[in-house]
Prior knowledge:
By secondary structure, the chain is α+β, with helices and mostly antiparallel strands. It has helices at about 1-20, 60-65, 70-80; strands at about 50-55, 90-95, 165, 175-180, 185, 190-195, 205-210, 215-225, 230-235, 240, 250-260, 260-265. Among the domains are: about 45-95, Membrane-bound Lytic Murein Transglycosylase D, Chain A; about 145-265, Glucose Permease (Domain IIA) (Distorted Sandwich). About 10% of the residues lie in helices and about 20% in strands. The strands form 2 sheets. Strands 3, 4, 5, 6, 7, 8, 9, 10, 11 and 12 form a 10-stranded antiparallel beta sheet that branches. It has a two-stranded antiparallel ribbon with strand order 1-2. The model is unreliable at about 15-20 and about 105-140 (pLDDT under 50).
Amino acid sequence: MSMLAALMVAAGCSSTRLDRPAPVEDRGGSAAPRPAEVVPMPGAENAGKPGYYTVKAGDTLFRIALDNGQNWRDIQAWNNLTNPNALEVGQVLRVQPPGATATAPTGPTTSPVTSSGVASRPLSETAPPAASTSPTTPPAPAPAPAAGGADEISFIWPAQGTVITPFDEANNKGVSIAGKIGDPVVAAADGRVVYAGAGLRGYGNLIILKHNNTYLTAYAHNQALLVREDQAVRQGQKIAEMGSSDTDRVKLHFEVRRLGKPVDPMGHLPKR
């Protein structure tokens, strides 16, 4: 009996050991996964700083450039963007030149119209002729007197029609000028073409001219564009033909932007 009892005791001990779960051995592969590392957006360290802009949903490089009074190619270069169409929400872009003061200038500027990183070149022989030699260009009205300061510009009317929609900063950031299909659209002042295309929603075939470090003008809804980007143009030169692209009727939408902010063109155009 003693031998049988001993065997039963041994069997009982063995059964107990088999029923007990094995201890957990951490070999690294069974650990819970770590949360994914949050990768900051490009330029996030500059968020909120003057001279920088944080990309929002629906933004395009063309819109950001217009709203900041810059050439979109300059913003592309300052931020080393390989694809100007690939912006990410939350990305922070430099919208003022490196080394430039980040606040609005306090004094006038007499700098010529140039674009950093883009060489200035004269009008080519293929450029449309100036208004004085083009029989289709309407005679330019007398320029409005400058408001004061060397950065101010004497603009002329870009088209001969009547104003059908006045300036409204919230809804209509310029004025709409009536006309017929194909009517000439002329440069309101000397400048350089910083955009010519149809990549800005709501503007149709659009031309943007940079006149100096303070002023841009925009000419929207054209039927045809007669100038190219980086081309120098003269006041009164025909740059487009009026049309109805991306709008409900034939008209010219004309904007004046001071340091990127839309201002009422009627305060800068000569009285009729």
